[in-house]
């Protein structure tokens, strides 16, 4: 019912709970963590895709002196689904309470936009929680966007994205980057610069069809990111202790991962020093350079160019020679090279960042055997979802069936979708 007409559905549910129609309905998409995964918190650019799995928020000014928030998804899961608080005295609850996202949003909106009154809101989402599709960011973007429309605050997409990041990173203390919030606010295929001024470049869409495969293994960004960040910091501090470290490299490094000038260092000039590090920090730093270099090549493809064979081999290595040649000779080299990059980046995530699991590898192998051009983890990893690129919908349907037979608990054939938008 909701899938066929989510706007009509959320209106009927809003009337059931509140006895009136909402003043505003907005929605925001989930996102595919397409290219340069685990790089946004380092200040490196990332590429995101907004998809037609969306979070909807119906909202009105409260006729009383309190805010009331209802989550249909929490209701269906037989969990606490209603939150009540007053905007004048908003604070976060100590437990992992869904209402904290809304409370934190109201705190941020009051900080930036002055007088915001209490609201009655209803939330419905197609986006699975903890599946690597940025469900929390979509909730924040949709809710902040809804309040923006309701009160005429004049916030644009960038404002909403930055406010959503502030909520998650600074108020809720979740160690995230800006990928999720900007990816949801803008939708489409976008290159997001994660350093000031946080420019967003909207890219042309590509042929092919994406499949999202949910492993059913819940993950938590808050559990994964701090560990990987600490491992990088260990490696950076050991590098800075090397007396013979090239001065030009030293000047671009720092003791903290977020302060390094990653995009100003060539992998080849730091590589000799990396191999003197312990295995774990070496792998994390090596990952950072290789992931970013392969993303640069893929961006050339997305912008209409085809890098030379020599460029591809230099970045991916001679072990990828035959696959590179095969992709370049394909009738659709753009699609084939993007799929190749996805496969390369998944292997980096698996082997250098250690965020895959045997169950995920089994699902991925099935997807590739069914015709997937590329398949990689979307999001933090250690659970969540895989994204797969197929040449057409028929192949995508085969991939979905094969993946469901090999451990995926559910999946979707998705379309590239727009970002934050008003539905009613």
TrEMBL record:
Please state every residue range assigned to the domain named Galactokinase N-terminal: 13-61
Tell me if Kinase is a UniProt keyword of this record: yes
Domain GHMP kinase C-terminal residue range list: 325-405
Q: What Gene Ontology cellular-component terms does the record carry?
A: cytosol
Q: Name one GO molecular function term.
A: ATP binding
Q: Which domain of life is it from?
A: Archaea
Q: Which GO terms describe its biological process?
A: galactose metabolic process
Gene3D superfamilies for this protein: 3.30.230.10, GHMP kinase, C-terminal domain (3.30.70.890)
Which residue range or ranges hold the GHMP kinase N-terminal domain? 100-188
Swiss-Prot/TrEMBL keywords: ATP-binding, Kinase, Nucleotide-binding, Transferase
What the entry lists under InterPro entries is as follows: GalKase_N, GHMP_kinase_C_dom, GHMP_kinase_C_sf, GHMP_kinase_N_dom, Mevalonate/galactokinase, Ribosomal_Su5_D2-typ_SF, Ribsml_uS5_D2-typ_fold_subgr
Mind telling me which Pfam families this protein's record contains?
GalKase_gal_bdg, GHMP_kinases_C, GHMP_kinases_N
Family assignment from sequence similarity: Belongs to the GHMP kinase family. GalK subfamily.
The molecule here is called GHMP kinase
